[in-house]
Amino acid sequence: MSFGPRPTGLPSHFRASTHGSSSTQNSQTTALQVRINEKKLELESLRQLRDLSAGLAGQMQQLEEKLSTLSDGTEAVAAVMGNWGNVLRAVGMASAGLPMPKATEDEMPLPQTLVRIPIQQAEAAQREIDKQEAASKDG
């Protein structure tokens, strides 16, 4: 009785499963590496988003400050405009009591000056300020 050659390795169904588990581990490792790389990219994108969001928040803070200043300025302008009628009424009343100068043929009559500003004193004060600034720059 003769028998055929005896197999020296594992049976074929064991060899296939062993080979399959090795390739499965490799594919799992590759899949995990791909997922890790995707997560790293996602993390970098989130960091960029965080940085951009911080910049946007800073710009919004500056805008808020500017709008607050604009609002305050608008309130001041509204107060001035509200008082403007009273100012014009006071000027009209003051002008009514002053004599009008006689007009020549080529000039229109101008109302009397209500406020007098001493220009000579203002010019002297400005020259003094300029001297002080020049002395502080030289010193």
Features:
139 residues, 2 helices, mainly alpha, elongated
Task: Report what the structure shows.
It is a single chain. This protein is an all-alpha fold. The chain is built from 2 helices and no strands. It has helices spanning 12-96, 119-138. The longest helix is centred in the middle third of the chain and has 85 residues, at 12-96. It is elongated. The termini are far apart. The mean pLDDT is 79.
Overall geometry comes to elongated
Q: Span between N and C termini? A: 124 Å
* Mean pLDDT figure: 79
**Could you tell me the number of beta strands?**
0
Estimate the helix proportion, in percent.
over 70%
Radius of gyration: 46 Å
The number of distinct helices, counting runs of at least 4 residues, comes to 2
- Which strand-content bin applies to the residues? under 5%
Main pleated sheet: none
What is the string of helix and strand elements? HH
Note poorly predicted spans: none
* Class from helix and strand fractions: mainly alpha
Task: Tell me the layout of helices and strands.
Layout: H1 12-96, H2 119-138
Report a brief summary of the structure:
This protein has helices at 12-96, 119-138. The protein is an all-alpha fold.
